[in-house]
Amino acid sequence: MQPQPAIEIKNLTVSYTDGKTIINNLSLTINKSENILISGHNGSGKTTLLKAILGLIPMNSGSITINNNRKGFIAYCGQEKESSSFPISVEEVLNLAVPGDKSKKEIEQIIKKATESTNCETLIKRNFFSLSGGEKQRVSIARCLCQEPGIILLDEPFTFLDKDGREELKTILKRLADSEITVLMVTHQNDDKDDFGTWRNISLNDEER
Amino acid sequence: MERLIFLFSLKPIVFGFIGMIISGLSFPLAGVIILRNDLIPLRYMLMHGVILGGTLSIAFSLPMVPVVALLNVILVFVMMAIKGKGKTLSVASTSMMVLTMGLASLVSHLFDVPSKDTLELLWGSPFALTKTDLFMLTAIAATLTIYCICSFRSMSAIFFDQDVASSLGINVRLHSTIMVLVTALVIALSMKVMGALLMDALVILPVLGVSRNSSSLKGVFIKSAITGLVLSVLGYLLALLYNLPVSGSLSILAVAFYVLATIINKIKRSKK
User: Fold this and answer.
1) Fewer CB in 10 Å around end: N or C, chain A?
2) B156:A88 CB<8 A
3) Is B92 in CB contact (< 8 Å) with chain A?
4) Is the ipTM of this complex over 0.90?
């Protein structure tokens, strides 16, 4: 059966306001259920690419086509942000991602399923900003799952994680890769490539493209 | 007690009490928005807007609250336009502060507005509330509360991460503008009730104290509103009983609450 494209990027060019081109004429087709590892050194445009796919930044030229325009079809797990002194519970973080048309019972089921698959059932009542780096990443992936997405974009999820945190997250991501969701993960750490050998590898470094 | 019963037979005291209940219950909600969205510079700009609004209303014999509220809304739009040109919130609000103070100074000079009358706005008084003020106060309090309840999910997402909120299809720009506008109106009115210099007592301090001992955003909203209500009622009654300025007694209570919340938080942390 012919693979169906989930994301089609054609001749994408994105520049900063100072005129520096960060992504130059990139064309890429990502199929449904495909798992992609996007690598590249700092400043190669990895995060910019994810934000362009999300429609958060303007493109200079080219096009990005997503084969589903449902709200929340693309879930985004950004780089870890600074902790806030303002609390928000894990339950609230997960709740905000669940599609708005769900009943209370359905919401509970979606959250239960997402927390079980990311091993964060016990964190539900905790303040998100009081969690460790690994716990935050697991909750962030659970949040993505609560969105019932077709595509998940992960931006350097291993940053700031200790060895145990990395291993646990890798197990969760491999499980995620076996699902029907299309996963795009950005990383600048080469050692991650070995752990995701079955994923399609795309480099944004000019010399490797 | 007899003194209190007598005082509550007077219309300005009753109007002031109603005003304190409404603002105590609802203004801390704006405090959550101000603190979570880092709108402190905006809050200072709006204080200057109140001075210009007050000067204009005295100069042209116009009702103060509507003029101040309208002016603050205009200032917010001008500031957002400046911010949209790539300037930071601090730069945008500072330039507006300078402009408003310059205009206030000019209007004062040209129309012989006594500076003392204008500066009294900074102190405010719940006893000076009129029926129109109370109506406006109720309207903005209701707007703020209804917005917080109906848009809680969108607000949570924006507070959590604006990129995540956008990916969920939430109109971040629209909600941010609504939040700033509602905050502007709350600041304009709270200055009339309590005065600009002591407004922090009711808008900011309850939220700061509560957020130290909560683990959820909903908890912060609810507990801040309850704390604001208790502080404003207690502060008002204390002021009446001991013949103190309301803003002074309320501020002392709010600071005491904040210190207590900080101590409780430290004890909790040391036990972990």
Assistant:
1) N
2) yes
3) no
4) no
Any chain A CB within 8 A of the CB of B267? no
Nearest to A72 among B156, B169, B215 (CB): B169
3-state secondary structure of A9: strand
CA dist A176 and A181 (Å) reads 7
A194: which 2 tokens? 């070995």
Mean pLDDT score across all residues of chain B: 86
d(CA B233, CA B91): 37
d(CA B85, nearest CA chain A) in Å? 12
> What dihedral angle (degrees, nearest 10) is formed by the CA atoms of B53, B56, B60, B64?
20
Two tokens at B110? Answer: 């040209």
- Taking a C-beta distance cutoff of 8 angstroms, is the pair B228, B28 a contact? yes
Of B86, B168, B218, the CB nearest to A72: B168
8 A C-beta contact, residue B50 and residue B75: no
Q: What is the pLDDT of residue B193?
A: 67
Predicted pLDDT of residue A192: 64
Report yes or no: A127 at the B interface, CB cutoff 8 Å: yes
Closest CA to B34 of B206, B163, B247, B260: B206
In B, minimum Cα distance to A54 occurs at B167
Q: Is A178 on the interface with B (CB under 8 A)?
A: no
Q: What is the mean pLDDT of residues B159-164?
A: 88
Contacts of B212 in chain A (CB under 8 A): 85
Query: pTM here?
Result: 0.84
Please state, in angstroms and as integers, the Cα–Cα distance from residue B153 to each residue in A95, A111, A121, B64, B187, following that order.
Answer: 8, 15, 21, 35, 24
Chain A contacts of B218, Cβ < 8 Å?
89, 92
Average pLDDT of adjacent 10-residue blocks, chain A of 209 residues: 84 84 89 89 87 90 87 84 78 91 91 91 92 89 91 87 83 85 83 75 70
